[in-house]
Amino acid sequence: MSKLNVLNTDGEKIKDITLNKEIFGITPNDAVLYDAIKLAQNNSRQSTRGIKGRSLVSGGGRKPWRQKGTGRARQGSTRAPQWYHGGWAFGNQEKNYSVKQNRKERILALKSALSYKVINKELIVLDSLNLETNKTKDIKKILSNFKVERNVLIIVSELNENLILAARNLKNVLLLEASEINVLDLISANLVIAEENAIKQIEEVLI
Q1: Labelling 172: which of 58, 78, 105, 191 has CA 20 to 30 A away?
Q2: Could you give the dihedral angle defined by the CA atoms of residues 190, 195, 199 and 202, in that order, rounded to the nearest 10 degrees?
Q3: What is d(CA 178, CA 202) in angstroms, rounded to the nearest whole number?
């Protein structure tokens, strides 16, 4: 099992925490991790293109004229593509981009992402993260103690209003509860800051 320092908001060491090696110390599975990232990206993709074919437009319920004897070309519906207000021929249709991954693979991908954060020394554990006010400058001061320059993911055991209001205006900060963590957000973050209780919650679920 690997050990990490538990820090306070000033960046000072308070004690050590022993991480569960079955969650934070596995050999990451890149193939499963790739599939999980692809799943998250595809499932968030929306298909906004859709053109109505002749079966989707309204009207055209009866034959416009009889088959023979009019001198005109035979027609079966006024909603055929060559008609005004007719349906489009071979038009683009909405597409479902979602993919699936079984539960064991999703859990393995999450463990792989967490293990990568430990391997790359991109995980910081705090004893707690409670703000007395909802001012953005307070959380910016805390982040400056850890020299946060790029995207940071903050994982807490329970969200509170002060923390939500203080972090919502920071573009490079994503705030999540331990129950909401996912592979895409973990991999996208350059640094993960997690409360000690949040780490324990993650271990209880993934063990």
Answers
A1: 105
A2: -80
A3: 6
Q: Provide mean pLDDT across the span 125-152.
A: 88
Confidence band of 1 (pLDDT split at 50, 70, 90): low
Helix and strand element counts for the chain (H, E): 7, 6
Asked whether 110 and 54 are in contact (CB, 8 A), the reply is no
Contacts of 121 (CB under 8 A, 6+ apart): none
The sheet carrying 123-126 orders its strands as 13-18, 3-7, 123-126, 191-195, 152-156, 173-177
Reported residue count of the chain is 207
- pLDDT tens column, 140-172: 988 888 888 789 999 999 998 999 999 998 989
Residue 22 above 70 pLDDT?
A: yes
Nearest CA-CA partner of 8 in 130, 189, 120, 150:
130
Residue 130 tokens, joined: 């409670």
Lowest mean pLDDT among 16-30, 42-56, 100-114, 167-181: 42-56
Cα–Cα distance, 44 to 87 (Å, whole number)? 30
Tell me, what amino acid is at 165?
L
Residue 117 near residue 199, CB atoms below 8 Å? no
Give ∠ CA 172-37-197 in degrees, rounded to 5. Answer: 60
